[in-house]
Write a structure and sequence with these properties.
118 residues, mainly alpha, 79% helix, DNA-binding
Length: 118
């Protein structure tokens, strides 16, 4: 759990400094993979790493031009995941992770998706 929290804190620091935080974001997901104890999940993450790295970098680059509140939303989403993991709420963690991945995908397709009022 400490590695997951540390990776998210490092991401927060990078974003606050105006950096992309790509490595820190990937470290967060790697830490979750490792903590899951699921070797298949870790193997799968390694297999898809190359396309993911490019996609994460693009998403973070697009987010760079947004307000700091929107850029740090990823940290807030990570915090939701961390909270669910902390109380061993696997369904909650899975739901938050799906939401987080949906937001990342939406940010690539529609950079204004979080600026809309609905």
């Amino acid at each position: 759990m400490a590695d997951i929290k540390a990776a998210n804190e490092a991401l927060k620091e990078q974003l606050s400094a105006g950096e992309l935080g790509r490595d820190e974001d990937l470290a967060f997901h790697d830490a979750i993979s490792h903590a899951s104890g699921n070797e298949y999940f870790g193997h799968l993450l390694n297999e898809i790493r190359k396309p993911i790295v490019g996609t994460v970098a693009l998403g973070l680059e697009l987010a760079r031009d947004r307000s700091s509140a929107l850029r740090t939303r990823v940290v807030e989403e990570h915090n939701w995941i961390i909270s669910a993991i902390s109380i061993q709420d696997s369904e909650g963690a899975a739901t938050y992770m799906r939401y987080h991945l949906f937001q990342a995908r939406a940010g690539l397709v529609d950079v204004h998706h979080l600026n809309r009022e609905n």
